[in-house]
Design brief:
heterodimer, A: seven-stranded mixed sheet, 9 strands, 48% helix, 6% strand, elongated, B: 13 helices, 15% strand
């Protein structure tokens, strides 16, 4: 008797909760919850795991034709109802709901009501196995989607997206807008997962410039009258342990550069029209933004083919030194020193690592055509030293495919203006060393003009050199 | 009790109870041990470093270092740290608030007055960076825009030997491996035909302090990391050349036979030191060819000779060593250490320092220009500096034309260039008396950490276990000075 009584009690409880849930769904907009009840909503993230697991087990048993224990289904249904009700309470706290939250709410309600329906049929006299199966399938789908949308509300929409660096990184233009191209991506990365229309923590949106101006429940976050005392900065600077520190402990934090960027942008007036070229050259932001514009080399090296230690060791000899640029990197630095008997065939040995070699020093070697042809296949070369070699314009012409070159040393060679035409096509070039070549001054000046970013070294400044060669150091005055 | 003692004396005679009670203590202490030392039971040896030796841990900015060490401690007040206040307050006693209890050496602790002494030499501002450089160093002034002056160096040592040992090995007490040895240990050699750590010495006319081979010793590291002192003159490396009557092919034959005998012994004993000895013999053999070639300055064209100054044709001068340093760097020597002695000006400073400066000014600056035009400043880091600074008050008689300065560890200046160091900047600041660091202090440990960082080494991770504990160049201190890195 006791047992049937308690089952009765459970039936009433489920019935009551269902009615309450439907009531909530209908009168959601008019509901005002007392604080304590609102607090119950905070349990939603905790209890939501129970119905997911319990329902999935029950569905699995049902669909595979096994017996579903009564207790299991009861617990699943009850927890689904409690989760849905607490979800409503939590949802009422949010001031405005985004699409995601709306979807999650209705799907969650559907899960609860479907499980009640299932429970009802399961406990009734007519068991209707077909209908039960249909409900199970529907329930499976709604559980998955409700859970997925819920996950997106908490963790951000692309939480489950396959990581794809290329898509995520927006190309930063040559003269970026400080706000749109630099600051907002940081906010998107580190803040927006909690301050978006679906999950407006602290009533604050950080999704666009207007929202930033508006601020949140504690007022504006950028104080135009006292920029450096803006709430945005204050929160970032609080110690990590502080409850008000942002982003909260445990979430990805802003790194040093990002902190400086936000701080400086606010200090400069937090404008959305400010551009890089409006900053003074020694502004602290300039080097940081330039660094962002040219993402670290490491990334491009990550695409290099694997090269194992054995290959490197095998190719290393008394006159060839091959090392990884850094441990675990597949980028190689290759130095070739002149052996007593040199022949170009030395370079043929290097062919297995032609794609991995990013730095090659072949200076002072009596290189000829074969060696140059091989070097021209080292497509990933960023640093090439061919100084003091017998190369001419013909050889430089062959190096055309080496478009990744950043540093090129060809001093003490017989190259002429013709080579400059080839070198001009190395768009990644940063430094060029052409002291003691046959390149004319006018051609070089022209090159410098069209490539102001390239550091061109064509010998010691005449005035300084004269100072060194003329002035006898013995005349230093003694006082 | 007696019975119990007897039982425990014989390890096999224990009853069941005894066994279990002992066992619980044993397991308990094992558990406690594993809690206290987390990797107690892990199979990896914590003494071994986790990354591969011979490879930078991250992409380096510098591949080699040329260290122009000015032994004896050149005065910062007559070189790069311009202090006009000293002129205004010339002869006044050093305020106690500035000295702040600084201990003094026995050479001036007896003085009852510490009169402030301004620089006898004038200063000028140079280049776009507007760096102040004294007239002792006009050439260095000309290239000031290539340099990063650090004016806030400080050390703990107050006497030459501990101070220079500290600079070279990271410890005031001798016995630790030298900086160059650590680099060789961490990064290996670029050119297997030359040592990875080379030392060149020269001596000026000024008051000198001794240099000892312990400064370039490999300490507890493998002896192949030791600095090789290249001498000036006919035999740069002693005993490298074959005796008369022994041909190169005979030598080859000899080495092959010796090494096959050594290999047999290696198989028998498994001693790795034998292998490194075989390698050393082979390297010496190759050095017979490579060293004379690298050391032959006559190959240098006229304009380069003029750039470094005519001095560089005289073997054993600082200028010759500076030019040599460039040639060694070109040939893949990892760490090139120059020492120039004679900077210890306790008296007669204006005259002596002028001579010292004349020795090094042009050649140091020429080295930078030469490296720059060859694109070598991209990956070669040059350091210029002594082991500590000198006092802002005068030692001995107060004579603005002929004075001395005592040792001063609290603040001094060095400069660096190339290899991932920002050019044309000044880092750190001293007070108006040039006595204390007031901004961005850089300790020797920080300096070491920064150098290692530029070379692609995390100074906290390059360790060597010796006598039961792990050592590093910076031992238990040191922060990378990020502000001076590009």
């Amino acid at each position: 008797m006791d047992r049937t009584n308690s089952i009765r009690g459970l039936d009433y409880l489920i019935f009551g909760l269902t009615v309450f849930l439907i009531f909530c769904s209908i009168f959601e907009s008019q509901l005002q919850l007392p604080n304590l009840v609102a607090w119950l909503g905070r349990w939603h993230p905790l209890v939501l795991h129970f119905p997911i697991v319990l329902l999935l087990i029950a569905i699995f048993l049902g669909l595979t034709g096994k017996n579903i224990p009564y207790v299991l289904l009861t617990a699943a249904t009850l927890s689904a109802l409690i989760t849905a009700v607490t979800g409503f309470m939590l949802g009422i706290e949010a001031s405005s709901k985004g699409d995601l939250l709306q979807w999650h709410q209705w799907l969650g309600t559907a899960v609860a009501l479907l499980s009640v329906l299932w429970y009802w049929i399961f406990t009734s006299v007519a068991k209707r196995p077909i209908l039960q199966k249909i409900i199970q399938v529907f329930l499976l789908i709604t559980v998955i989607f409700a859970g997925h949308y819920g996950g997106m509300v908490t963790h951000g929409e692309d939480f489950l997206a396959i990581p794809n660096k290329k898509n995520k990184k927006i190309e930063i233009p040559e003269n970026p807008l400080i706000y749109s191209h630099i600051v907002q991506p940081i906010l998107d990365d580190k803040c927006v997962s909690c301050h978006n229309p679906n999950k407006k923590k602290g009533e604050l949106l950080l999704t666009d410039f207007l929202a930033l101006q508006e601020g949140g429940e504690n007022g504006v976050i950028i104080d135009k009258t006292n920029l450096n005392n803006s709430e945005l900065l204050n929160r970032l600077h609080l110690p990590l342990k502080d409850e008000d520190h942002m982003p909260p402990e445990g979430k990805p934090q802003l790194n040093e550069d990002e902190l400086i960027i936000i701080e400086r942008w606010v200090a400069l007036g937090a404008s959305d029209t400010l551009q890089l070229n409006q900053l003074s050259n020694n502004d602290i932001l300039v080097p940081i933004i330039n660094k962002l514009k040219n993402p670290k080399k490491k990334k491009s090296w990550a695409d290099l083919p694997e090269v194992d230690d054995e290959t490197i060791e095998k190719l290393n000899s008394d006159y060839i030194n091959i090392t990884r640029i850094a441990s675990k990197s597949n980028a190689l630095n290759v130095l070739v020193f002149s052996p007593p008997t040199y022949s170009d065939s030395l370079f043929m040995l290097l062919q297995p690592i032609s794609k991995n070699t990013v730095q090659l020093d072949a200076s002072e070697l009596p290189l000829s055509e074969i060696a140059i042809n091989i070097i021209a296949q080292f497509k990933n070369l960023e640093w090439l030293e061919l100084d003091k070699t017998p190369i001419t314009d013909v050889e430089v012409e062959k190096l055309k495919p080496l478009t990744k070159l950043e540093i090129l040393k060809v001093y003490n060679t017989a190259i002429t203006d013709k080579s400059i035409a080839v070198i001009e096509n190395f768009h990644n070039l940063k430094s060029l060393f052409v002291t003691e070549t046959k390149i004319t001054k006018t051609r070089l000046d022209e090159f410098k003009k069209t490539n102001p970013d390239v550091v061109v070294e064509d010998g010691i400044d005449k005035e300084i050199e004269e100072f060194f060669t003329q002035k006898d150091t013995a005349t230093v005055e003694e006082k | 009790m007696d019975d119990d003692n007897k039982k425990s004396e014989d390890p096999l005679k224990i009853n069941r109870r005894h066994f279990f009670s002992q066992l619980s203590v044993g397991i308990g202490s094992l558990a406690l041990g594993s809690l206290l030392i987390p990797d107690l039971f892990s199979s990896k040896d914590p003494g071994l470093i986790t990354h591969q030796l011979g490879i930078p841990q991250f992409a380096p900015k510098a591949k080699r270092i040329i260290y122009l060490f000015q032994a004896g401690a050149p005065s910062q007040l007559e070189s790069f740290d311009y202090k006009p206040t000293l002129k205004k307050r010339m002869g006044e006693d050093l305020p106690d608030s500035i000295r702040n209890g600084q201990r003094l050496t026995g050479m001036t602790s007896g003085q009852d007055k510490f009169p402030l002494m301004p620089s006898a030499v004038n200063f000028k501002q140079y280049g776009k960076s507007g760096a102040w450089v004294s007239d002792f160093f006009p050439h260095i002034g000309k290239i000031a825009d290539e340099l990063c002056f650090v004016k806030s160096m400080h050390t703990e040592a107050i006497n030459h030997d501990p101070a220079i040992t500290f600079f070279q090995t990271g410890s005031q007490q001798s016995g630790r491996p030298s900086m160059g040895s650590w680099m060789s240990y961490g990064l290996g050699s670029e050119n297997k035909n030359l040592p990875s750590f080379v030392v060149l010495t020269s001596r000026g006319k000024g008051n000198s302090q001794g240099l000892y081979s312990k400064l370039w010793s490999s300490g507890f590291l493998d002896s192949k990391h030791q600095g090789v002192l290249l001498r000036s003159g006919k035999d740069p490396v002693l005993y490298l050349n074959d005796p008369d009557g022994l041909s190169r092919s005979d030598k080859r034959h000899l080495l092959d036979n010796v090494s096959s005998l050594n290999k047999i012994h290696h198989v028998d004993t498994g001693d790795d030191e034998i292998e490194s000895r075989i390698a050393q013999y082979e390297m010496a053999y190759r050095m017979q060819m490579s060293v004379p070639d690298v050391m032959d300055i006559k190959q240098e064209p006229e304009h380069i000779i003029k750039l470094y100054g005519e001095d560089c044709q005289v073997p054993g001068t600082y200028a010759a060593n500076a030019l040599q340093a460039r040639r060694l760097a070109e040939n893949g020597v990892r760490f090139i250490q120059l020492y120039h002695q004679g900077w210890d000006q306790h008296g007669g400073l204006p005259h002596e320092m002028a001579g010292q400066a004349k020795d090094v000014d042009q050649a140091s600056a020429a080295l930078i220009l030469d490296l720059k035009q060859r694109g070598m400043l991209e990956d070669t880091l040059v350091v210029w500096g002594g082991e500590f600074g000198r006092t802002n008050y005068c030692q001995g008689n107060f004579d603005p034309k002929n004075y001395g300065r005592d040792h001063h560890p609290r603040a001094f200046s060095i400069w660096m260039a190339g290899g991932g160091i920002k050019p044309g900047i000044t880092y750190g600041k001293t007070d108006e008396f040039g006595y204390n660091v007031v901004e961005n202090p850089v300790h020797i440990n920080d300096f070491h950490a920064t150098l290692m960082h530029a070379m692609g080494i995390n100074h906290e991770e390059l360790t060597y276990k010796y006598q039961g504990r792990r050592f590093r160049l910076t031992d238990v201190a040191g922060d990378v000075v990020k502000d001076i890195l590009t």
